[in-house]
Write a structure and sequence with these properties.
Layout: H1 18-24, H2 31-44, H3 60-70, E1 74-77, H4 84-90, E2 98-102, H5 117-126, E3 132-136, E4 141-145, H6 152-155, E5 157-159, H7 161-165, E6 176-178, H8 180-183, E7 187-192, H9 199-202, H10 206-209, E8 214-216, E9 219-221, E10 227-233, H11 246-251, E11 254-257, H12 264-274, E12 286-287, H13 291-304, H14 318-339, E13 343-344, H15 354-358, H16 371-391, H17 398-405, E14 409-413, H18 419-427, H19 432-437, H20 444-460, E15 465-469, E16 472-476, E17 490-493
Parallel strand pairs: 1-10, 1-11, 4-7, 7-10, 12-13
Antiparallel strand pairs: 2-3, 5-6, 8-9, 14-16, 14-17, 15-16
Helix pairs in contact: 2-3, 12-13, 12-14, 13-14, 13-16, 16-20, 18-20
């Protein structure tokens, strides 16, 4: 998750007046030069320009590096959940840690070259005694989510009627209340979902991007702003909710297209980085998520992005994988709490809980009543089968199928404790080889998770049949008739105990 740190207090030994600043040898540089210098140092050191963004190393990040080195304003174009906002916010780490400004300045005025009327008057009156304060780089970032009701006053500024009522003239620059863009002077200003900004408001950004000045309420205020402008947009927004006007697009120096993780491995790495799992409480169960269960979650999102039944214009956000992983873990913890088990380990039978965390994050295109559920179940089944085939070699499976050909039956359900799966393993010794192939530990919960995957994988591969009712199911030999649904693992009944 993206967090915005609270800016720290500046070091006590920094210059406190304009005279001390000059004596220290500090040199003022434009914000683009500042970004370029620090980006070049990172690139030369082999460090990533944007931290904690995975899967973009060979595609998106080189384009961002080029844009920063060229000093370009940029727009990030991509579907939801592609780390666009994280990239934008991370650009602040390319700024110098501390920046001197004229004390009390609304526009973070450069002490050497102030642009606002108040700062200019203060420097003219005080000279080298002008007080200087220091701003942390985290404070040099302003962000606006574009909405149709955003006004020019929000972005650029407006005459403050209260200041007029206090006796100032309308033509006096001191009557102005500056908007977000001027207040981002000497920093980075970001507009999220730029196409949602009304076209007449987008026009107000033209001068900012090209001439680097602003005009407010009938008279020109020559503010030579030093701002880097970054915007984000969804490609479909060009035609659906709105569009970016052509002159504005032309003024962005770089347009960078983002994308989803290219493979399940990258997707899972992002999930491990971002997911917030249920923390161990005093006396509560310890959570262990086997690798194959995390891989199923990542594979599910990858398959959803390829499915013709999913609205791909809406996209399948990485947030789907994160929420599903968290829900999978939560369902395992809930079961462990209910059964009084010391360890919570997700199983295939927990995948049914992902319906709640997936609804709203994907748009299934189906005209028939109830077809959405069937499409979702088919995606889950495909993800389980793909992981099962990658992780379990076919030579381990023949003996397991042969054991079921002897009319053995396995009853399953999410209400069964993990210890029940040890009994399954004892009565069907052929399961041990594929379970060991999954690389799980010897703990009961991990064994239970592996047994479930093997049984479900054999069912999906049409080598075992399965009868299911809600969260409970029964696996049988191939000669039996059965329905098909996703579900768990559990107790073994020998042939003489079958009903």
């Amino acid at each position: 998750m993206v967090t915005v740190p609270f800016p720290p207090d500046p070091p006590a030994d920094l210059p406190a007046t304009l005279g001390e600043l000059r004596a220290s040898g500090w040199r003022s540089v434009p914000v683009r030069e500042e970004l370029r210098r620090n980006a070049a140092a990172r690139i030369a050191a082999g460090e990533p320009l944007v931290a904690r963004v995975l899967g973009f190393e060979d595609t998106v990040l080189p384009q961002i590096e080029n844009a920063v080195l060229a000093g370009h304003d940029m727009i990030l174009l991509g579907e939801r959940g592609q780390a666009k906002t994280r990239i934008v916010r991370s650009l602040t780490q390319l700024l110098d840690e501390w920046l001197p400004v004229v004390a009390g300045s609304e526009l973070r005025d450069d002490p050497y070259r102030p642009v606002s009327r108040r700062a200019r008057d203060l420097v003219a009156a005080e000279g080298d005694d002008t007080p200087v304060t220091w701003v942390h780089r985290d404070s040099r970032f302003a962000e606006k989510l574009a909405t149709p009701d955003t006004s020019i006053a929000d972005l650029i500024g407006e005459v403050d009627p209260i200041k007029v009522a206090e006796g100032r003239y309308l033509a006096d620059e001191l009557t102005l209340h500056y908007g977000l863009v001027p207040r981002a002077n000497r920093g980075i200003f970001a507009v999220n979902e730029l196409p949602d900004l009304a076209e007449r408001i987008q026009v107000g950004l033209l001068n900012v991007l090209e001439e680097r000045d602003v005009q407010i309420r009938g008279f020109t205020v020559r503010l030579p702003l030093d701002v880097m402008l970054v915007a984000t947009a969804n490609p479909e927004d060009y035609t659906n909710r709105g569009r970016i006007i052509t002159p504005l697009k032309d003024r962005f120096g770089a347009q960078v297209r983002t994308h989803y993780p290219p493979d399940a491995g990258t997707e899972l790495a992002i999930v491990h980085q971002e997911a917030r799992l249920p923390a161990d409480s005093a006396g509560g169960p310890q959570l262990v998520v086997p690798d194959h269960m995390g891989e199923i979650v990542a594979e599910l999102s990858q398959l959803a992005r390829q499915s013709p039944h999913i609205n791909q214009r809406s996209g399948v956000s990485v947030r789907l994988s994160i929420a599903n992983y968290e829900t999978l873990a939560a369902n395992a913890v809930r079961r462990a709490l209910r059964l009084g088990e010391p360890t919570a380990v997700p199983r295939v039978s927990d995948l049914g809980a992902l319906v709640a965390s997936s609804q709203g994050k994907i748009e299934i295109e189906a005209l028939e009543e109830g077809r959405e559920e069937r499409i979702w179940q088919a995606l889950v089944a495909s993800a389980v089968l793909a992981v099962f085939r990658r992780r379990v070699a076919p030579e381990h499976l023949g003996p397991v199928v042969a054991a079921f050909d002897s009319e053995r039956v396995v009853h399953v359900g999410d209400d069964l404790p993990a210890a029940a799966y040890l009994q399954v393993l004892a009565e069907v010794p052929a399961l041990k080889a594929p379970v060991d192939a999954l690389g799980v530990g010897e703990a009961q919960g991990e064994v239970a998770s592996a047994v479930e995957l093997v049984l479900e994988g054999l069912h999906l591969g049409k080598r075992l049949n399965k009868d299911a009712a809600g969260a409970k199911a029964t696996y049988r030999g191939g000669r039996e008739r059965s329905g098909r649904t996703a579900g768990g693992a559990g107790r073994v009944d020998p042939p003489e105990r079958r009903s």
